[in-house]
Amino acid sequence: MKIFLFDSYLSAIQNSVGARSFQTLWAAVDGEKRDILRGGELSCASFVSGILLWFGLIKEKHATVAGTLRDMEKSGWKEISEPRVGCILHWEKALINGSWNEHIGFFLGQRTAVSNDYHTRVPIEHHWTYGEVNGKPARKITRILWHTSLEH
User: Fold this and answer.
1) 3-state SS of the chain: helix, strand, coil percent to 5?
2) pLDDT by residue (tens digit) across 11-66?
3) Domains assigned to the chain
4) Where are the beta strands (DSSP E) in 58-128?
5) How far is CA 82 from CA 23, 32, 88, in A?
6) pLDDT at 152 over 90
7) How far apart are CA 17 and CA 66, in angstroms?
8) What confidence score (pLDDT) does residue 69 get?
């Protein structure tokens, strides 16, 4: 039997839409047990790193975009200039609930992405730049990343 890594990876991303599996990550903070993802509000890195870890494309689970990106770089992910289905998108920081937050998700093709939504607190499918405002992306993509293990 041969497992098709790319097809399985893409199916896992698509099937994660609406999943509550990535909403909670418990950690000790100042000696107290806390949900550091705040019930899914801050789950984009947990979502992406969880999928990547599942398929052996990074080394560990992460709660932050910065930690996920560092692990991706150490694990062979490279920046590319044009998006490919299954690549990772890194969006510019946005002001959300009073703090500036980075964001990360997966590109599905045809201007569509899947990432965790801080409103619904689950992964959703959306426009890859969150739409356009005056002909410009509503949220700029700062990096596009690809791993050669996903070649098919």
Assistant:
1) 25, 35, 40
2) 999 999 999 999 999 999 999 999 999 999 889 999 999 999 999 999 999 999 99
3) 5-150 (3.90.1720.10)
4) 78-79, 88-96, 99-109, 112-116, 123-127
5) 30, 43, 11
6) no
7) 23
8) 98
